[in-house]
Amino acid sequence: MPLRQVFGAATGAVLLLLFAPSAVAVSVGALSAPSETVTVDPTGHLAADGTVTLSGTYRCLSGTGPVLVSSSVSQGDPRIRYGIGGSAAVCDGAEHRWTNSEKRTPGTLAPGAAHVEATLMELSPALGGLPLPLFHAVQQQDITLVEG
């Protein structure tokens, strides 16, 4: 596909998301169910080499595209968030564990209080082949990062 067509499709998707938020909200709300959840464990781990490991549980009912559990952490300034990995999710209605790890420069994060956001998101096929994110569940939680 020529670069011009790719750029045009991406621009169209961005404009759709920016100028039609009610349509996006309806489609997100229509797919997510109250029984779809993601949780964050109250303790995360910080290794000496800077590797951060976060975990929790998730439950989702179905998906037409790939479903992922993503996570991010902030400490101090809430405007600065660090992505901590991502893992594939199985949407079969059962509760599953997730664990995401990411190596950060040592000293970026420190043991102590932190804030985590975990998102259960599907890359749903859309018209034109450009996948759109559909959010099944989001959880924000204060946690404690511990050494180890």
Descriptive account of the structure:
It is a single chain. With 148 residues, this protein is an alpha+beta fold. It has a single domain (3-147), classed as Sandwich (Immunoglobulin-like), CATH 2.60.40. 19% of the residues lie in helices and 45% in strands. The protein contains two helices and eight strands. Strands 1, 2, 3, 4, 5, 6, 7 and 8 form an eight-stranded mixed sheet that branches. The chain starts with a helix and ends with a strand. Residues 34-147 form the DUF6299 domain. Residues 1-25 form the signal peptide.
Shape: elongated
How far apart are the first and last residues' alpha carbons, in Å? 47 Å
CATH class: Mainly Beta
Report the sheet with the most strands, covering strand number, pairing sense and barrel closure. Answer: 8 strands, mixed
State the order of secondary-structure elements, H for helix, E for strand.
Answer: HHEEEEEEEE
Question: How many individual helices?
Answer: 2
The helix/strand class is alpha+beta
Number of strands: 8
Q: What is the mean predicted local confidence, pLDDT?
A: 81
